[in-house]
Amino acid sequence: TGAIGFLHGWTLVLLLFTLVRLRERRTLARAAVAGGAYGLSFSMAAYMGLLATALVAAFALVDLVQATSLADRLWTASLLGVAGLVTSVFLAPGAIAFLRDRSDVTRALTNPLDQLDTLAASPLSYVLPPPRHPLLGDVAAGIRPDDPLGERILFFGSVTLVLAAVGVLLLPRAAGRTRELLLLAAVAAPIAFVASLPRTFELFGLRIP
């Protein structure tokens, strides 16, 4: 089982590639291509567009922090503006449909506000294996958060977690495209993690807003 929208995960890879290329050479043309990749993510599936936002936010944050002058920051703003303009072209059909028939579009897109909590992730969701793990079984029974719909199972493997940690450790010594890729991933990961949490969550009995 799963969400069919995630079949379009390739759009995130494409976006990451275009953002790395933009970091290497900060031109308006490459910004437009990145904006197209971002818009394409939304066009393929709303899930992908929301996930892609973490990558775009990471790019903006890294580029602004590393800017050494006001002119550099203004150029970053110009690049983001061009990318946003191209992205808006992809979003235009949905916006037009909303303006023409708001009731139908709103009914199709609106989820109850409480789903921000009931379907959100828990910090433990990323480290606890699923109940039907082929090797570990349900070793996390009793400490796994309530998850009647299976939306909070986000464990993507111990090997992946180890490789991610190794990538962060290698970041200071990385260079070129590898460094840009690791840097964007290292910034995007915590942004995406925080965005996936509910408005308040419980960790080891402590309620955290």
Topology diagram in text:
Layout (H helix, E strand, L loop, with lengths): L9 H15 L3 H17 L1 H21 L3 H31 L1 H8 L5 H4 L39 H13 L5 H21 L4 E3 L2 E3 L1
Antiparallel strand pairs: 1-2
Walk me through what this model shows.
The protein is an all-alpha fold. Helix 1 (10-24) crosses helix 8 (176-196) and helix 3 (46-66) crosses helix 8 (176-196). The mean pLDDT is 80. The chain has a two-stranded antiparallel sheet with strand order 1-2. It has helices at residues 10-24, 28-44, 46-66, 70-100, 102-109, 115-118, 158-170, 176-196; strands at residues 201-203, 206-208. It is built from 8 helices and 2 strands; from the N terminus they run ααααααααββ.
